[in-house]
Amino acid sequence: MLVFEDIKSLQSHLAGYCQKKSIGFVPTMGALHKGHLSLINTSISHNDYTVASIFVNPTQFNNSNDLKNYPRTISNDLALLKEVGCDIVFIPTAAEMYKDNLTSEKFDFDGLELPMEGAFRLGHFDGVGTIVKRFFQIIKPTRAYFGEKDFQQLQIIRKMVEKQKLKVQIVPCNIYRESDGLAMSSRNALLSKKHRLAAPFIYHVLKEIQSNFTELGVAKSQQFVKNKFETHNLLKLEYFEIAKESTLLPAKSITPQDNLRAFIAVFAGDIRLIDNIQL
Ligand code: AMP
């Protein structure tokens, strides 16, 4: 496994690859877990070479404490990537990626950026779009892998690729969960013991909605989730939305022609967790 820290040496190495070889790319912010590794494994099975990046992108954080406290476990990450057979890891600094201009490009994602994460984390998706586009320009991957754990992000990247006619295939990957149902996330490592024990409640509520959605419909599902969290003393609901997968616009009722998905953000103490489920 080769590790690169600067763009020039990564690009001169990639230029040595025969043009007919396919490159799979998996962008991450590190503190890797099995969810990340499932993306890497999928990329390895689809492509001749797999490139992973580890970069905690400052422009997608709207909260400086969140950025400061984001877990960083680089030597463990490298060991995990080597173990699964990742070919190349790119670990640039912020200066390498942004030179001396630590700002985001402004994107129009046709409104996908406005609800949910976009409403609660202002500027987040401009930061995501800026860094992912930059990675695509540098690595020129054949395919890039994104988890449905961050479903809104996945739709935004698809939109960016479509609007900017970027030559990369976006491959969605299933949400990888702990055995108790909690969606794997780098932030789970920051949970206190009692919050970690409480956190699978988020998935259990989503599963209840999924099982009863036809009878409950949209409005009653929303009320059901609100009630569940109002009486919970460790988890605080930030939002629960039922939206159309294609537009992320809120669904008002069940419409057979639309694929609907439920989205949730919850505070477990100071740690913010997100999850979603197809309905
Ligand atoms: P992150 O390091 O959190 O930026 O995540 C890097 C990539 O891994 C993103 O495409 C995420 O959606 C994906 N990812 C994170 N957690 C999971 C998970 N539990 N299951 C599947 N993919 C995930």
- Computed over alpha carbons, the radius of gyration is 19 Å
The biggest sheet amounts to:
6 strands, parallel
Percent range of helical residues: 40-55%
User: Structural class, please?
Assistant: alpha/beta
- pLDDT < 50 stretches: none
Distance between the termini: 40 Å
The dominant shape is globular
Q: How many strands in all? A: 9
Strand adjacency order, main sheet:
1-4-3-2-5-6
Oligomer: single chain
- Secondary-structure element series: EHEHEHHEHHHEHEHHEEE
Describe the structure.
- The protein has 279 residues and is α/β, with parallel strands linked by helices.
- 41% of the residues lie in helices and 20% in strands.
- It is built from ten helices and nine strands.
- The strands form two sheets. Strands 1-4-3-2-5-6 form a six-stranded parallel beta sheet, sandwiched between helices. A three-stranded antiparallel beta sheet has the order 7-8-9.
- β8 (260-268) and β9 form a beta hairpin.
- α7 packs across α8 (151-163).
- The longest helix has 30 residues, at 201-230.
- It is globular, with a radius of gyration of 19 Å.
- Adenosine monophosphate binds next to α2 and β5.
Q: Quick gist of this model?
A:
By secondary structure, the protein is an alpha/beta fold.
